[in-house]
């Protein structure tokens, strides 16, 4: 059964990030900073609801380092009563990305999921990830995997996740469309056999260079239902995001 979740940059709607001027010292050594903030109608991770159907506040900061390396952090509010991991999730990650060619990119890294005000027990865990992206005209297709090795917070078992994302920008418009399909094999599911599919389809509209609004239909498989709440019901998620 699920004990602690989030995923790899799991947003229900794709949002871009624009680089901002870093402090002079950072610029001198080739560091570029970017940030993001969002209000979502509910926080979905791999199709699973982590905010109890309520609004969540999210945001993060990324630092692009020389030679393709990067580090960053991202956080979200949680629903303390239904989720059980406290009211805050904090993710810290680092990795390396590169363009293999004009149309192919590669990314690899490690991500720590932290729940600083969770109750007694082990909830924090680490996941390793990698992805390949291919640009085809106005579309980009990404194939990614994530693996969380055996940890106490995962019931001394592991978790494997594979997914594909498709994003298409409609030419000469501020509109982009996105689709996602993922498959989990391991501890982080709400199914009796520890296997589950999740999916989403959405659209995003850029309101200028900074703000975007998105809507997505999101769902996941699940046959384990909490006494008063179903974490895997399909839902329409609305996002108001800003990148800077």
From TrEMBL:
The organism's lineage is: Bacteria, Pseudomonadati, Pseudomonadota, Alphaproteobacteria, Sphingomonadales
Q: Does the keyword Signal apply?
A: yes
The record, for Pfam families, names:
Gcw_chp
Q: Give the matching InterPro entries.
A: CHP02001
User: Keywords on this record?
Assistant: Signal
The name on file for this protein is: Porin
Taxonomy, superkingdom: Bacteria
Instruction: Give the signal sequence positions.
Output: 1-26
Is Signal found in the keyword set?
yes
